Amino acid sequence: MKRVVIIGSGLGGLSTGVVLARAGYGVTVLEQGQQMGGCLQCFVRRGAKFETGMHFIGSAREGQTLRRLLRFLGIDDISLSELDTKAYDIVRLGSDEFRFSTGGDAFVEQMCCYFPHEAKGIEAYWRCVERVANASSLHTLSPENADSAVSAEYQMRSIDEVIGSLVKDPLLRNVLVGNLPLYAARRGRTPFSTHAFIVDFYNQSSFRVVGGSDTIGFALQRELERYGGRVLTNAKVVRIHSDANHVTGVSTADERFFAADTVVSAIHPAATLTMTDSPLIRPAFRQRIASLPNTVGIFSVYLDFKEDTMPYLNSNYYAYRNGISPWDCEDYTPDDWPRGYLYMHFCHENQPRYARAGVILSYMRFDEMAPWLGTTVGHRGEDYERFKQQRAERLIDAVERSFPGLRSSIRHYYTSTPLTYLNYTGTPGGSAYGIARDISLGVSCHVAQRTRLPGLYLTGQNINSHGILGVLVGTVVTCSDLLGTEHLFRLIKNANR
Ligand SMILES: Cc1cc2nc3c(=O)[nH]c(=O)nc-3n(C[C@H](O)[C@H](O)[C@H](O)COP(=O)(O)OP(=O)(O)OC[C@H]3O[C@@H](n4cnc5c(N)ncnc54)[C@H](O)[C@@H]3O)c2cc1C
Q: 429 CB less than 6 Å from ligand 1?
């Protein structure tokens, strides 16, 4: 039996572990934290449960891509609650609200009601989204539909350039990128393909995970263990060992050595490369990976609602201040923060009447964390607590303007900053989504799953893309390299017969 060590127990590490354990590998997943799951983790305070990094998922109806992947992984028994099909996303710009309907035709129809003078442009935009999404064999799991020319074109054109070429109305242009915090896009930089994949993914169908996103992590752990694999927590990998030709294992901060024929790192590639000094990995490659930009971090306010006071919001609510577009919100000044936010409720049971808990998210740059660099959780000092409280109050005030009565429904609230994410996931700068795709860098920001050190592979959100589908597609890419692409696609197909 070949021994595989996987570094990191987020979605990428766990799902890769399941696929390889099923294929007969002896899999050990090593997790630095006390709790496994990375961004799938939830926490419980005073009986309320909060998700930290997976609040809703898409394309999970029967036959859709994510559903097929969940079934392939053996975890399609997780319980899902569908978001409002007439308003899975609500975008507020100034004083106007715009609702996104599930399904391409319904989406176009609804947008045309708001912007009848742009009917042609809206139709053209939607066909473009579909064409780009369907051109990717990975996004659709249908190699026969792949169109590499379309994929290549829209990986090199920015979101704002493409949308600007299709619609004229500046307000409509902003509405179409209203859910931009889901991928932290930058004007003139983020490829249109990133937008198309995410928009198409959630438009097919959108769901919350009933009981919290950690149920995905537990289901993956159950599958992993069923095939003889294991997850060890409190096991921070600090070194990847190799001989002249091949990887030989890893060692942890507490000096345990795990021998391995294959090491798959499911953490940030820059952090991975600091753990090996193998000369097979060239300095130019190390430099390129270390210099890639990462997406901005997030400030979260977790809301614990008083019993039966807050009607469940079955939509995601994105709002931007008067005169502010969804673009450039991370270029805020301390005075005009937050320029925008995303507000959501958690789903403790299928279609609950009242929400028990919710979250408000807004961008936060890592430079704001400078005074507390090097401090540890719970020991960052009173000024840090004051900073978080001031920011939380501002965010709650902002949401209260759209949801009068919010404040009086809150029993307690808790906060997290990019420093929290740095601590819990190890992502540089507490970046929300890892490496930023940037058309000005061309293929340089593409990170391959295979390294030049034989036996060392990469997986997780930095390989393909972030988010549940982006990461699972990354798992397919990495496991295809180990098991064979055709074989893996056959397994996915067979699981869905
Ligand atoms: C605030 C927020 C909200 C989000 N909301 C959604 C959403 O609604 N829907 C969606 O699809 N996606 C969402 N995402 C994105 C999604 O959560 C991530 O893309 C995905 O979970 C990343 O998985 P991963 O396995 O690549 O990395 P991670 O989840 O970051 O896991 C990496 C793991 O590796 C561990 N680790 C790090 N270094 C070491 C080491 N040296 N040794 C051992 N272990 C180590 C970490 O502790 C962590 O457990 C959100 C992200 C954020 C930040």
A: no
